[in-house]
Amino acid sequence: MRNVLKLNHSGFIDSYWFYADLLAIASTVDADDAWLLNNYINLRSVESASYPFSLHFMNGPYFNLMVDYLKCPFLKTERLRKDVEFNPSRELVACLKALIDSGSYIILMVERREIETYQINRSRPSPHEIMIYGYDDATETIYFADNTKTGKYAAKLSCSYASLRNAYLKLNIPEERELHAYFYKIQVHACSTYSVQRSTIKAQLADYLHGRSSVEPYTTEKVFYGIYIFDRFLAYLTLHLKEGFVLDLRHFSLFYDHKKVMCERIRRLLPDLKTEYRYEEVVKEALLIRNLMLKYRMSKEKTILLRTMRKMEALKSKEQAILESACVALD
C-alpha cells in the first residue's frame, strides 16, 4: 500500500523546519494564503549570555517552537506521548502508517546520522525533528521533510523503513527535552471564517517599523523587535570581528525569508503601491547579504564581512521608506 499526504511547499520560508512544515501543511487548505499574509511580519531577537544573537518571527506570544501550530486555524495539533501512542505490541512503522492513514502528519525527533539521506559522517549526535507525511510499502520508503545539512528546507526527502527504525531507536537526548517523550500529530481542516485581515497586517507593520511588539508588551528578557533587528545584526557582526565566534548563518536565511514574504504581501495587497524604491530590491539585497555570509564562512575574508555590514546599514533605510508607505496605503 502507498499513502502520501499532500504538501504545498511554496519556498517562501526555508530557514527553519517549524515555519516551513506549518506552511507546507496549512497551505494545502488555505487557498488564499491568509495565514502567510497575516503573519511573518514582525521579527524578534533575544540577547543573552549564552547566545549573542537570535532571530525568529514574532507572530504572537512566544513560549516554544510549536506556538504557531496551536494558533493556526487550519491545523489541529496534538502533543502525544510516544510510550502511549506507539503501541509496544506494534512495530514503529506500522504505528506511523496508521497515523498517516488517519490523515495525520507526524513531527518526530530522530537521530539523523542513521538516515542515509542526510549523509552525516560526524561522530557526535545529530538529533533533529522531521515531519513524516507518507509511506510506500512496495519500496519500504518513508517520505518526510526537514532542513538538510546545507540548511535549506526540503519537502521531498525519503528513507527506508529500516533507517527510520534505527534513527528512532538510537535517539539519545536528555529527558528534559520535550520530544524525548512526545511527538506531534497534525491534521488539516478548512476554515472559511479566517481571511486576510488588512487591519491586523497594518498594526503589525506599525509594530515592525517602531521596533515594538503589541502582542508581547512585557518580558523579563532583553528583547528587540522589528526594524531594530538591523542594528542587532550589525552589533552581532561587530562582536564576531572582536571575539571570532562561529556565526549562525540561519539568521541570515530567516532575514531573507522575511523579505520574501513581505514582498509577496505587498504584491498581493498593494499592487499599485508607488514608492521611491521597489521592495523587490530589498529582497535582492537580502539574498546578496545571505550569499555574502556563505562566502565569508568559506573564505574568512574581513572585507566580505565589512561589505555585508555596509549593505545591511543601507538596506534598513530603504526598507523603512517602503514599509511606511505600505502602512499608509493599507488604510
Automatic annotation (TrEMBL):
This is Butirosin biosynthesis protein H N-terminal domain-containing protein.
